[in-house]
């Protein structure tokens, strides 16, 4: 693994950790706000409805908890959607960078010797076999595989 890959992996891990931390902070803020709203709703209901029966207080408590659960669920769903979008974007960036590096490597001077060496190693391990390669690489491999091995695109 090259230093660039290690650095990219480190940056990806830091980015994901930041996303997780932000998500946790947002969930805590939503939870805190929701709990404050629940407590405020309960206190107000108790002041106004002292004369009402125990059933009315229980009903209002259940209603407030259900509302809070809906709000927390909506908040979590929104955060999950945002996190998924950020992960998708990060994944796209990582794969785009990898594609660029692979294309640069395949276009470089080190590619042909690397390809020949690895094709030879695979052929040595498998014996008589068919080696599959990119169409563009067939010309590079021709004449560099042992007898009994064939090349295919």
Notable characteristics:
4 helices; 153 residues; two-stranded parallel sheet
In short:
The chain is mainly alpha-helical and 153 residues long. Helix content is 80%, strand content 4%.
The geometry reads as rod-shaped
Low-confidence blocks of residues: none
**What amount of the residues lies in strands?**
under 5%
Q: What is the CA-based Rg, rounded?
A: 31 Å
* Helix/strand order, N-terminal first: HHHEHE
Structure description:
The chain has 153 residues and is mainly alpha-helical. The chain contains four helices and two strands. It has a two-stranded parallel ribbon with strand order 1-2. Strand 1 (130-132), helix 4 (135-141) and strand 2 form a beta-alpha-beta unit. Helix 1 packs antiparallel against helix 2 (54-107). It is rod-shaped, with a radius of gyration of 31 Å. The two termini are 28 Å apart. The model has no long low-confidence stretch (mean pLDDT 87).
């Amino acid at each position: 693994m090259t230093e660039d890959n290690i650095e990219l992996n480190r940056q990806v891990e830091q980015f994901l950790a930041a996303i997780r931390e932000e998500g946790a902070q947002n969930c805590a803020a939503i939870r805190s706000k929701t709990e404050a709203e629940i407590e405020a709703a309960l206190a107000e209901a108790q002041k106004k409805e002292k004369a009402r029966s125990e059933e009315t207080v229980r009903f209002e408590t259940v209603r407030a908890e259900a509302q809070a659960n809906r709000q927390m669920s909506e908040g979590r769903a929104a955060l999950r959607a945002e996190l998924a979008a950020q992960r998708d974007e990060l994944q796209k960036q990582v794969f785009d960078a990898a594609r660029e590096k692979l294309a640069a490597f395949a276009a470089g001077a080190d590619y042909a010797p690397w390809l020949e060496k690895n094709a030879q190693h695979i052929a040595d391990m498998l014996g008589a076999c068919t080696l599959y390669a990119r169409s563009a690489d067939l010309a590079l491999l021709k004449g560099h595989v042992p007898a009994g091995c064939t090349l295919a695109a």
